[in-house]
Amino acid sequence: MTALLNRRQLLAAGATLLAGNSPTRAHDGTVHVVIEKLAFLPADIEVKAGQIIEWTNKDAFAHTATVKSSWEVLIPPKEVATHVAAAGDSVDYYCRFHPNMKGKITVLV
Ligand SMILES: [Cu+2]
After folding, report:
1. Domain 25-108 in CATH: superfamily?
2. Is the pLDDT of residue 18 over 50?
3. 16: CA distance to ligand 1 center in Å?
4. What are the residue boundaries of the structural domains of the chain, listed by start?
5. Dihedral over Cα of 96, 27, 45, 33: its sign
6. How remote is the CA of residue 100 from the centroid of ligand 1, in Å?
7. In the chain, is it the N or the C terminus that has fewer CB atoms within a 10 Å radius of its CB?
8. pLDDT tens for residues 30-88?
9. pTM summary value
């Protein structure tokens, strides 16, 4: 009986630990960027590693968040797309379809 209780406590403690270390802290501040009329709003964002960047495309055509020689996120019209910020993800990005659309991500240490 005692052993069972200890095991339960251990499991509970383990679960708490896992929750605390979760790399996708969805509720711990998703950073929102709206795309409207060919612009990222806001254009400059600051995030912590592990935070989710969420783009909401309000335009009637597709956009991308493209980092040259790195990652790219396609954001279909009227849809939402996400990218999890990694350490070292301080980058300038743009839209592949509309190169004048520019944004900047700064990952805080
Ligand atoms: Cu675009």
Report:
1. Cupredoxins -  blue copper proteins (2.60.40.420)
2. no
3. 41
4. 25-108
5. positive
6. 8
7. N
8. 999 999 999 999 999 999 999 999 999 999 999 999 999 999 999 999 999 999 999 98
9. 0.73
